[in-house]
Each structure stands twice: as structure tokens, then as C-alpha cells.
Amino acid sequence: MAAIRFLLNGQWCSEDSVPPTMTVLDYLRTVRRLTGTKEGCAEGDCGACTIMVGRREEGRLRYDAVNSCLMLVPQLEATAVVTVEGLTAPDGALHPVQHALLEADATQCGFCTPGFAMAMAAFQHGGEPARDELIHEALAGNLCRCTGYRPIVDACRGVAGGALDHLAERARADAAGLAGLSPIAEYRQGEQCFYFPHTLPELARLVKQHPEAQLWAGGTDLGLVVAKERRWSPALIATSFVPELKRITVGPDWIEFGAAVTYSEALPYFDVSFPALGAVVRRLGSRQIRNLGTMAGNLATASPIGDTIPCLFALDAAVVVRSIAGARPRTMEKFITGYRRTSLAPGEFIESIRLPRLVQPQQFHAFKLSKRFDQDIAAVTAAFRIALADGVVQSLRAAFGGMGPTAKRATAVEEAIIGQPWTASTLAGIDQALARDFAPMDDHRGSAAYRLRAAANLLRRLQIETARPDLAGVAPLRLEAL
Ligand SMILES: Cc1cc2nc3c(=O)[nH]c(=O)nc-3n(C[C@H](O)[C@H](O)[C@H](O)COP(=O)(O)OP(=O)(O)OC[C@H]3O[C@@H](n4cnc5c(N)ncnc54)[C@H](O)[C@@H]3O)c2cc1C
Ligand code: FES
Ligand code: FES
After folding, report:
1. For residue 285, what are the contacts with CB-CB under 8 A and spacing of at least 6?
2. Ligand 1 near 107 CB (within 6 A)
3. Is the pLDDT of residue 281 over 80?
4. Ligand number with the minimum distance to the CA of 297
5. What is the mean pLDDT of the segment spanning 98-124?
6. Would residue 317 count as lying in a domain?
7. Sign of torsion over alpha carbons 148, 153, 159, 165
């Protein structure tokens, strides 16, 4: 029977007896007795369980910080894992981030410290400069209840872009070690099976053969169901071993993101071609979540508060749906069919998401309103693709999330605005149009009245920012801080 093979702190592990649905956190703590990795929330929010997972990329190894509480052991196949126990050099010398935390008095009870150390080590290993926003981004997925963040941030600033340490050596050795692995097709334990298709036809065949199976991309939605609700399907099919699904294709008219491309991998492309989408995605979960999660997973979950879905509506994205019979693009309007429902039929899966490039004079803007800036689910998300000529709205695709059972386009709003002068007075009666498009509900994230008011104000913000581009980025911070 096939075993899951990976490197753990430089040592080979071959596991053939752990359940496929065991989380990596449980595995580390109970099977390997590596108890430095902590369980705080078990739902991806606190970062206490952060580890680094390295994968080979063009012959080199890149370590990413991830939440081990959301990952399943089979996801470790062909990876190199580093836990806090592996940060220390073989001669016992502390890693620079451990030194920095010590020197900055950045630990009190110490429960959060291993998670911070791992997030900081991944940040340092990535070679990022000591810019405040990057440090914030790297640490936003870790919570500390007692020390306070200033010394932790100081420690991180101290190691940013720092001297290469023994991890660089480990990365070279790990990359060489992983190079010789031959792929496995499945990992089976009793009734449970985790499949590892390595080609697109193989994936299509498995999806057809096992209509009850769940596709497993990053597992940041599914991992939560396993960790919290102890629910899983007997058959799980990984998408991340299929090279076509890891591809980003830049065409003249569109950019296509394979269904297993993570947010972190997609972000550099968003930043260049759709910066507003990049800004929204940077607030989706934490870096640990974005290192695992995918846009395809967000789309297939079809949550009314999925952050990327309004953006995909406004950008007129095409969802390329594949089955054993072939692949076909589907519009967002055809793809999302209801509350957490899509038009995917048994045997079908998302192969990629195609984003048409903006053409002059189109602009794309997107906003996320949540109670906290980081690590929070949106009360309202809005996305707009607008084209203006001589002060008049030529075209508009407006979409909102958090305003009803599904994220969707605001067609009454679009009708009320297209062809009109792009002035504040055009938006004077926009509340009525919004009320025709949406009947939001009250919940702990916001009342229906708040959501309608917020949506109208986001349209006003769009008008101000497009009329006065120098104000773009000024209003959001104030608004979100309220
Ligand atoms: C702590 C935390 C914070 C979060 N914050 C946010 C947030 O701020 N905003 C937000 O929108 N979401 C958030 N999420 C939810 C989640 O991270 C996203 O929805 C993410 O995009 C899911 O992607 P994934 O690859 O992890 O999906 P998975 O969990 O692997 O899969 C999700 C669903 O998609 C299906 N699926 C995956 N790939 C395919 C495919 N190729 N074809 C068909 N179906 C497929 C799966 O079968 C499953 O039903 C958060 C989650 C956590 C745990
Ligand atoms: S235990 Fe809190 S993020 Fe994993
Ligand atoms: S030091 Fe106690 S939680 Fe951070």
C-alpha cells in the first residue's frame, strides 16, 4: 500500500497508517510528539499552529507559512515540513528569529510564540524587505493575548531580509531530497481514500468515477469542516498535483488562473493587472490561508460573502468547467445558482478562471467592509468595472456580496447609472435601485439597513475616487476603521 512521503525537519517520514483525514496539527502533536506547534483555535484564525511547508519550484524550494490545523496529512505528500523544533540549527544554535524574539522581550506566556516564530521565519526566508505593510501582512495571521504586538513587530523588523541561516542550507538539501520522489496515485485507509491525480484526464476520470468525492484544493474551507465538525467524504481528490491546474496563462485578452493556483501565487498577477482585486485578496484570511486557499475553492463554495465572487462577476470572468467530455467556459451568471450552490453537475469541476483584461477606458475598483481590517469576513463586498467617457458612464458591471443569499450583479443599479453623467446627483436616488436589486438580512455582521446604506456609500466612494483619483486609497482606511 502506498505511503505518504515527506521530509520533516530534514528527516524522511513515510506514513501508511494514519487516517487520511488526520490534520497535520494532530499528527505533529500526537504521532510525532512535536508539541511546539500549538492548537489555539483549530480553525485557521490564531496562527499558533503555523508551520512551514516547502515545495520544489523550478528546482528550488520555497517554504510557505501555513496553518497546520487546516491541513490533512496527505497534503504533505512530496513536501518538506519545518516545525518550530526544526528552526534551531543542528548544533543547537537558535535561529535568528528566535534570537530576535528573545532580544525584543516579545514573549510572555509563550503560547503564541512558536507560531509567530514560524511566520517570521517564512517571512525572512522569502527575503522580503523590512517594510511596515509587509511585516503587518506576514504577522496578521497570528494572535497574541498577552505580550502586545509592538515587541513582536520590532523582532520581525530586525530579521527582515536578514542574513541567510541554516534554513537556506536545509532548503537546498530538502529540494535535492524531494527531487527523486516518484508520484503516488492514492493513499487509502479502510473506507477512506485520498487520490492524487497527476494529469487532467486522470482528474476528469476520477471525478466521473467518484461523483460523491470532494475535490480538495487548499482545504481552507474543507479543512475547517474536518477539524471542527469532524465531517468528510470517504473519497477526497487533490487538485494541486495536476500541473495544468497550477498554471497561470497570460494571454493578450485575458489572464487564466488554473484552479489549484493559490492566492499567494496569483497575487503578483492581480497586482499588475487588477490591483483592486489584489487589495481585496490581501484581506482574505491571512498569509497562512492565502498560501493554501484558491479562487476556485472560493467560487465552488459559493458563499454569499466569498470575497472574490463579486470581483469575478464585475470583471466578467469565465469559469472554465471540465468533465470527461471536455472543457467549456461558463459565465458567472450561469455558474452561481443559489446559496452555496453552483451549476457544476456530477463529473464536472473547475479547470480554470479566465479574467478578461481591462481595455481603455475601463477601470476596476473593489471594496471590502468588515468589522476588523484583517482576518475578518466581509459584511459587504462591492466590485465595479466602469468605463467613463467625457464624464458620462459608458458601461458598468456592479456586483455585491453580503447583500443576499448569493453574491450577484446589481442590474437595477447598472441601469440607473449607465448613460448618465458621473456626478453625485446621478447617485442621489441610488438607494431605490439597490432596494430593487437586494433584500439583505440582519445578522451579527450588520443589519439589513446598514448593508443597504453601506452599498450606496460604496457607490458614492467609487464616484469620488474615479472623479478624483488622487483620493483613491484615502477614504477606505477611515471608513474601515469606523
Ligand atoms: C481562518 C479563515 C479565514 C478566511 N477568510 C476568508 C475571507 O476573508 N474571505 C473569504 O472569501 N473566504 C475566507 N475564508 C474561506 C476560504 O479560505 C476561501 O473560501 C478559499 O478560497 C477556499 O479555497 P480552498 O482552495 O482552500 O478550497 P477548499 O477548501 O479546498 O475547497 C472548497 C470547496 O471548493 C471545492 N473545489 C475546490 N477546487 C475545486 C475545483 N477545481 N472544481 C470544483 N470544486 C472545487 C471543494 O470541493 C469544496 O467544496 C477563510 C477561511 C479560513 C479558515
Ligand atoms: S490552531 Fe489557530 S490557526 Fe490553527
Ligand atoms: S505571549 Fe501569551 S499569547 Fe502571546
Report:
1. 44, 141, 220, 293, 375
2. no
3. yes
4. 1
5. 96
6. yes
7. positive
CATH of the domain at 228: 3.30.465.10
How far from 4 is each of 15, 19, 24, 259, 443, CA to CA, in Å? 5, 11, 12, 23, 43
List, for residues 12-46, the tens digit of each pLDDT value: 999 999 999 999 999 999 999 999 999 999 999 99
State yes or no: pLDDT of 266 exceeds 70: yes
Least confident of 144-148, 390-394, 456-460, 471-475: 471-475
Of 154, 182, 210, which residue constitutes the final position of a domain?
182
What DSSP line would sit under 22-77, residue for residue? -BHHHIIIIIS--TTS--SSSSSSS-TTEEEEEEEETTEEEEEEEETTT-BGGGGT
Which residues make beta-bridge pairs with 364? Answer: 385
The one-character DSSP state at 427 is G
Residue 190 in any domain: the answer is no
Asked if 378 and 351 sit in the same domain, the reply is no
In angstroms, the CA 342 to CA 301 distance is: 8
Same domain flag for 408 and 465: yes
Output the CA 116–ligand 3 centroid distance in Å. Answer: 10
pLDDT digits (tens, 9 = 90+) for 384-397: 999 999 999 999 99
Alpha-helical (H) ranges within 339-429 are 411-417
The domain boundary residue, chosen from 121, 155, 182: 182
Kindly report the protein residue whose alpha carbon is nearest to atom 4 of ligand 3: 144
- What pLDDT is attached to residue 480? 40
Neighbour count for residue 324 (Cβ, 10 Å) = 14
Ligand 3 in contact with 3 (CB < 6 A)?
A: no
The SS3 of residue 374 is coil
For residue 241, CA distances in Å to 116, 185, 186, 301 come to: 29, 10, 12, 21
Cell output for 388: 467613463
Pairing state between β 318-323 and 326-331: antiparallel
For 30, 199, 300, 352, the CA distances from 337, given in Å and listed in that order, are 42, 29, 11, 19
**Predicted pLDDT of residue 482:** 32
Range of the domain at 170: 1-182
**Ligand 3 mean position to 109 CA, how many Å?**
5
Residue 381 lies in a domain: yes
Kindly state whether residues 134 and 66 are assigned to the same domain.
yes
Examine the pLDDT at 473 and tell me if it is beyond 60.
no
Peptide bond into 361 cis (omega under 30): yes
Which one of the ligands is nearest to 282 CA? 1
Spacing, Cα 143 to ligand 3 middle (Å): 8
Q: What nine digits make up the cell of 285?
A: 484570511
Q: What is the reported pTM?
A: 0.95
451 lies in some domain: yes
Q: Are 398 and 315 in contact (CB under 8 A)?
A: no
